[in-house]
Amino acid sequence: MTVLFLTKLIDYFKLKIEELKSEFPNDDFAIPADRMEAEQFIPIADVIVTGGLSESQLNKAERLKYIIVPWAGVNGLPIEAIKKRNIVVSNNHGNGKIVAERAVALALAVMGRVVEYHNDLSKGIWHGYEAGSKKEDFWYSIQGKKVSILGLGTIGRSIAKLLSGFDCEIMGYKRSIESVDYVQHITTDIDEAIRFGEVIFVALPLTKSTYGIIDKERLYSMRGKFLINVGRGQLIDEEGLYFALKENILAGAGIDTWYLYPNVDHAVQLPSKYPIHTLRNVVISPHVGGFTIEGQTGRIDETIENLRLILSGKAPKNIVDLDLEY
Description:
Elements: E1 2-5, H1 11-23, E2 28-30, H2 35-41, E3 47-49, H3 55-60, E4 66-68, H4 79-85, E5 88-90, H5 96-111, H6 114-121, E6 146-150, H7 154-163, E7 169-173, E8 185-187, H8 190-196, E9 199-202, H9 216-220, E10 226-229, H10 238-246, E11 252-255, E12 282-284, H11 293-311
């Protein structure tokens, strides 16, 4: 088999590929130096490791049998075209517990008004006891709160585990009813989950059915609640999110996934066309939920294990249901 890597390779990834080369000397591992060289390898690749593939590239990949996504999201792939070819797609969740840690950190930061108070104190502006103990200076504890987690994959389950130490009462939203550790209530009704939680974590995959699932109406039903998004930006209506925050319908938000991203033409890029970043009740983060050493090694290890299974003639783990897109 020929395995083509169309993803950024850090040193640890390269080290693990060298190990695979030793284990499977009769297989080829292509690491292109640039985009032009990558295009030359696509027609002979049996396996492509990537999170982003165009339909035109897929059409050139005549021998392609497997796509291994080195993270969870598969929204960068031409799903319908892949389905027609019966190509197996496998993703991984090796950094899920790290993303969950970021989600909880965002919740603690926005509820604790950490960034807001840091910015004020850096200007000599005090809050709390030293400023006259004003009621409007209270911050909010997460302990004992009712929490809803939308999406109970690896990230959502890990959020629930972390929150168990805060004695939170947790409701999880998922497609089917089943027992989940640290989750007291399960619902298949997203509106029930939204009504339940004082803090709402969004950890859903981005699919046709979840695109814009948190629409303006649902946002405006979240009066006094905190919203934490570590799923994808497009799960939440962008305009609705801005005005729900600006008008203090939402108590606050912690956001790691966005609507606009930097590219070759715009190295400096605000994350939304609305000035969400200017609001005091928001903590923003540049989509770095899994960007730790542990997060990187976790997803790489799982990617390598999937390759090892394929090269051994077995099925990879975490085969994506292409109809559900996760």
